[in-house]
Amino acid sequence: MNRFDFIRPASVAEAVAAASEPGSAYLAAGTNLLDLMKIGVARPGRLVDITRLPGLDRIEWDGDGGVRIGALVRNSDLAHDERFARTFPAVAEALLSGASAQLRNAATVGGNLLQHTRCAYFQDTASACNRRVPGSGCDAMQGENRLHAVLGWSDQCIATHPSDFCVPLAALDAVAEVEGPSGRRDVAVDALHLLPGDTPQARNALAPGELVVAVRIPADAAAFAGHSRYLKLRERTSYAFAVVSAAVALEMQGGAIANARIALGAVAAKPWRARAAEASLEGLRPTAEAFAAAADIALADARPSGDNAFKIELARRLVARALSLASQGTPEDMPALPASPFSTIPGATNVA
Amino acid sequence: MSLSISITLNGRPHDIALDDPRVTLLDLLRERLDLTGTKKGCDHGQCGACTVLVDGRRINSCLSLAASLDGAEITTIEGLADGEALHPVQAAFIEHDALQCGYCTPGQIMSAVGLIAEGHAGDDPERVRELMSGNICRCGAYHGIVEAVLEAQKTIAQQDKRRAAA
What we know:
By secondary structure, chain A is α+β, with helices and mostly antiparallel strands. Chain A contains twelve helices and twelve strands.
């Protein structure tokens, strides 16, 4: 790990000023950043420790029923907040399907949003990676790429964004509140992460020094509380990043779908909102045919970036499965294996 | 560059001057405070051998910078037993053969203490397995670990009940 200056600012304004210096990085829990520093991928000359900043660790409800989550709220505290889990169950399920209990206890809301890809070539300083070293090439293209992107990738980068949390956030129109050298602004979570294009190193829409201070979920997202799911396929039962994941939310009226939200995870460099698929469901009865058609639309533009064509069919089936489960209602209790399509309940189907 | 932190470690206050901001909590414990019960496995947050409690919550000490922990209350495996009397989780691990080589055991035990305090597992072994998935055991003692966690949870609940009644 390189040497660095360690700054402990007393306020958000001080933090932003300190982090606006080139070579600076914000330190929250550090569960991703410290790891990247140990392997030499991140080499900040200055760490700005924001963990003690006042006022960023609260979950606040507005009069309409929308919520504002401070950037330093820990993943586990948010997932287990009773009102939050009841109002936005797919978000709680996504949080509890991510990482391990230890990491969820440490990792913050803001850090989850801004975590880096887990592409093995990004993490290996001996490999070519346009995201890490612009212009150096992409060893993932000809490498082990079965888990890489199938949507929105470019010939510069085929990495995926690893977050579970961001997937339902994108589906529910969540917004990141950002404080920076030129003041405060809102960035939709759906617009926070950038597709690689020709500049994969520009991974998000934040300017130097900008700090995510909160995430807001609008009140109207609570209308989906009764019919929401997050499903995540992993290569082992627990403590693994998604192969593909899907957040779906339905607003049911008189037996028909009044409103649908669908977002996919681990398929692109950002959480992938499927708006055309959502629109296709409006006014329809919740049938297997309607869900299969919506899943086809969601993956219509998908193409393999390597040995990963299977992810497209897997994602299609996962979207259809998540829609079907959501239409049956949000589970009363958090499943023992959050987000797992493999139920341990006797009699439940495990075949998509 | 010198950074100072004050922490409470296993119930005792410590003022620590850090000569290097790169020191993780794990390295602080093992290399500078001679508390080698907490183990370094992967050093990347993947194995759980370094699990300790910070402010009562289980975390991976390898992914925590000591300099960011000013004011924290830290409990390690060395702080669990009450004199010669083992903590109920320690006793249950012995009772259920929840280890073979023992290298992951301090992390498993600290993780189990955290899990029981969190109170989300109930008596469901599936939930225990899921909530212990951040602790890898290469010897494969998982069966005994799940049994030990469930039994220790019962013991602690009974102790709490007795204490409340007293």
